[in-house]
């Protein structure tokens, strides 16, 4: 099972990847056969190639993640709240998100799910 230190390091590396605009840094935390569902309800991205393509597009927008509170860890899972400040369609906005990571025994993310919807997109 992934250790708390591995799980927290993965979340922090994920946030740092967005800060650096580095999709490869994000992909590095995922298992080869990982599944990303972002947001929940959209078609899953499976495997490094699909995940890389997704993060290349996401990071091309200039999105940065700002953690809102502590990372929650429990039995091979991490959950963390954050917001994404952005300028979209001529307006300043924030998207408020909760992501969950499920880890494999090697400490790699095997599943990522992002929870947010239209009600979590706030005009500033």
Task: Provide the low-confidence segments as ranges.
Answer: none
Domain count: the total is 1
* Main sheet summary: 8 strands, mixed
Evaluate the radius of gyration: 14 Å
Rough outline = globular
How many helical stretches? 3
What fraction of the residues are assigned to beta strands by DSSP? Answer: 35-45%
| Secondary structure category | alpha+beta
Helix and strand sequence: HHEEHEEEEEE
Q: Tell me the total number of β-strands.
A: 8
Helix content: 25-40%
**CATH architecture verdict:** Roll
How far do the termini sit from each other?
A: 41 Å
Assign the CATH class.
Alpha Beta
CATH overall fold name: Nuclear Transport Factor 2, Chain: A
What's the overall average pLDDT, rounded? 97
Descriptive report:
This protein has a single domain, classed as Nuclear Transport Factor 2, Chain: A. The chain has 124 residues and is α+β, with helices and mostly antiparallel strands. It is built from three helices and eight strands. The longest helix has 17 residues, at 4-20. Strands 1, 2, 3, 4, 5, 6, 7 and 8 form an eight-stranded mixed beta sheet that branches.
């Amino acid at each position: 099972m992934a250790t708390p230190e591995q799980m927290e390091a993965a979340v922090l590396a994920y946030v740092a990847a967005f800060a650096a605009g580095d999709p490869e840094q994000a992909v590095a935390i995922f298992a080869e056969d990982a599944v990303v569902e972002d947001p929940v309800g959209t078609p899953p991205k499976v495997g490094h190639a699909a995940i890389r393509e997704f993060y290349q597009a996401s990071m091309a927008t200039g999105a940065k993640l700002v953690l809102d509170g502590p990372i929650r860890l429990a039995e091979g899972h991490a959950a963390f709240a954050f917001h994404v400040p952005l300028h979209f369609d001529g307006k300043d906005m924030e998207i408020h998100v909760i992501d969950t990571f499920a880890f494999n025994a090697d400490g790699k993310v095997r599943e990522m799910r992002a929870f947010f919807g239209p009600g979590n997109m706030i005009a500033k």
